[in-house]
Amino acid sequence: MSESFINLKEVVLKNNCPECFNNEGLRLTFQQKIVETKFYRSVTSDVSHILECKVCNSIIYPVQWTDAIERVFEYQQKAIQPKKPSKYLKQASWIAILLFALVIIVITVLAIYPIL
Ligand SMILES: [Zn+2]
């Protein structure tokens, strides 16, 4: 099973970075989690966010956020539109389902018309 993220939105913030105080480096990214296995690919309802500064290359964790950053974050969070959670079966699943159905049919046929 592998997990990946798709970027829903990247916002450039005009706020000062709590680390380097530059006001041009903050990028807020919203991501939605995707789980993928051999049998299916699923878009989860799990939306996460990350705030990084491109100037000092640090990740700004919520404990470091200023009130101004929090206000912008809340505003942006309301504006994002996550993808609808969905699950899509891969070919491997369909083959497994078909084989299973075939076995059931064979068993049924043999039960009705026993080979003597
Ligand atoms: Zn910075």
- Fraction of residues in H or I helices: 25-40%
Strand content: 35-45%
Counting DSSP E segments of at least 2 residues, the number of strands comes to 5
Q: Which regions are unreliable across 5 or more consecutive residues at pLDDT < 50? A: none
Structural class comes to alpha+beta
Instruction: Please outline the major beta sheet.
Output: 5 strands, antiparallel
- The helix-strand sequence is EEEEHEH
Radius of gyration: 24 Å
What ligands does this structure carry? zinc ion
Query: How many domains make up the coordinates?
Result: 1
Number of helices: 2
Topology:
Layout: E1 2-12, E2 26-36, E3 40-53, E4 58-59, H1 67-79, E5 86-89, H2 91-112
Short summary:
It is built from 2 helices and 5 strands; from the N terminus they run E-E-E-E-H-E-H.
Would you mind describing this structure in some detail?
The chain is α+β, with helices and mostly antiparallel strands and 116 residues long. The protein has one domain. It is built from two helices and five strands. Strands 1, 2, 3, 4 and 5 form a five-stranded antiparallel beta sheet that branches. The longest helix is centred in the last third of the chain and has 22 residues, at 91-112. The radius of gyration is 24 Å and the shape is rod-shaped. The chain binds zinc ion (ZN). Zinc ion binds next to loops.
Comma- or semicolon-separated keywords:
single chain; 116 residues; alpha+beta; five-stranded antiparallel beta sheet; 2 helices; 5 strands; 30% helix; rod-shaped; binds zinc ion
